Amino acid sequence: MFFGKTKPHKSDRVPPNQNVTTSFPVLHAGHVPEYEDLSKWNLQIYGLVEQPLLLTLDDLHEMPQSEVSNDIHCVTGWSKLDNVWEGIKTKEIAERVKPLPEARFVILHAEEGWTTNVPLEDFLKDSSLLAHSHNGAPLTPEHGFPLRAVMPHLYFWKSAKWLRGIQFTKENHPGFWEKNGYHLRGNPWKEERYSFD
After folding, report:
1. Are strands 78-89 and 19-20 parallel, antiparallel or unpaired?
2. What's the pTM value of the predicted model, to 2 decimals?
3. In the prediction, which pLDDT does 10 show?
4. What is the chain's alpha carbon radius of gyration, rounded to the nearest angstrom?
5. Are 126 and 91 spatial neighbours (Cβ–Cβ below 8 Å)?
6. Does the pLDDT at position 5 exceed 60?
7. How many CB atoms lie within 10 A of CB 8?
8. Among 65, 57, 83, 59, which Cα is nearest to 146's?
9. pLDDT of 153 above 70
10. At 123, phi and psi to the nearest 5?
C-alpha cells in the first residue's frame, strides 16, 4: 500500500506499490550533522572481527574505490532509478577486519545513536557499498555526507546515512526504525515494510 492506494508499476525494476521519482526525497530521524573539522571524523569497525579498525576519511579514500549503478526503493513508496554511487565495497571492509565465524549480523551505527540491522549476507552483497559520492558529486549533508551505506536490494532506510560505526554481531539487534514497527529485513520485492508483514 502507498498512502492507502495501490499503485501500478510497469517495470520489473520497480517493486510492488512503488512510484518512480526523478527527485531524491529527504527523509530521516534527527538532525542533519554539521562537521566543523572532518579530520576528527572516523569510522569504527568492531565486534566479532579479528582485526578491528578505526578509519579516517583519508583512510577510506585511499582504499580501492568502486562505482556502482543501481535503483533505490524507499519504504514510504518512492523509487529512484539509475543512481551512480562511488565508494568502498563492503566486501573490501570485511576482508580487512575478517569477521569471525559466529558473526551473522551487522549493526550500522549513525550519528545521534541511530542504528539499523542487516544480516551479514546482505552487508556482503556485491552491490553493497559505503558511499561518499552520488551521481558524480560528493554526498550532500541531507543525503549522508561524508559517508553512508548503500544496500539497494533492501528498502532504503537500511542504507544508513552519516555512518560512524559498523558492528559485527552474533545476534540480530533491531535498530531505530525496526524497534518502531519496521520489518527486521526490509526486502522491497516482498513488501517487507512493517514487522507484521
Report:
1. parallel
2. 0.91
3. 60
4. 16
5. yes
6. no
7. 8
8. 57
9. yes
10. -60, -35
Task: Establish whether the linkage from the previous residue to 146 is cis, with ω within 30° of 0.
Answer: yes
- Range 164-186 burial, b when 16+ CB lie within 10 A, else e: bbbbbbeebebbbbbeeebbebb
Domains, the chain, in order of start with CATH, read: 39-188 (3.90.420.10)
Closest CA to 88 of 49, 53, 36, 113: 53
Of the candidates 196, 16, 197, 189, the residue with the CA atom closest to the CA atom of residue 6: 16
Per this entry, what is the length of the chain? 197
Structural contact between residues 194 and 174, judged by C-beta atoms closer than 8 angstroms: no
Tens of pLDDT, residues 49-103: 999 999 999 999 999 999 999 999 999 999 999 999 999 999 999 999 999 999 9
Exposure string of 86-102, with b = 16+ CB inside 10 Å and e = fewer, is: bbbbbebbbeebebeee
Residue 11 one-letter amino acid = S
**Per-residue confidence (pLDDT) for residue 17, from 0 to 100:** 93
Q: What HEC string does 150-197 produce?
A: ECCCCCHHHCCCCEEEEEEECCCCCCHHHHCCECCCCCHHHCCCECCC
